[in-house]
Amino acid sequence: MPQSESLSEPLPEPAALPGSALHIRPVAAADLPVVIALDHAHTGVAKPEYWYGLYERLAQSARPRFFLVAEEGGVLRGFIIGEVRAWEFGSEPCGWIFAIGVDAAARVGGIGSRLFAAVCACFKRAGVTKVRTMLRRDASLLMSFFRSQGMMAGPFLQLEMDIDDAARANPAGSGRP
Known about the structure:
With 177 residues, this protein is α+β, with helices and mostly antiparallel strands. The protein has helices spanning 32-43, 48-60, 111-125, 140-148, 163-169; strands spanning 22-26, 65-72, 75-85, 94-102, 131-133.
């Protein structure tokens, strides 16, 4: 996947785990079926159109975006996706992780940590000093993982509502900012 000139050098490899031949690299189109299967195993929802569309959008983006995979012995074991975002509601430029998945049979082997370290290294090379993500409150496995990496609650609060409720609450569209 093409990336800007400043990010084209090889990915820094975090310290190898003893006995591990894990290699972290940018995703290739041929990896997508495994990424789709890993995501399906985690979410229970098969969404190949989403993943192929995401791959295409990331490949064409001028924004620094990183879609990395972890491969061991020719077998794809995990993936992570992040991008540099800036200035939404006053947020300084920062790295955002918006997807991670590790083969359940390979968990607790450091693969997620290595992927996290690799995407953080990409963010650092892109010039940002913070990394953020957003999780469902009931995603205890992901919450535990990200907290084990040193992440904690940040200064922003996520808000949402059902769009149908918004139309009922404000039928004239007179809301402000």
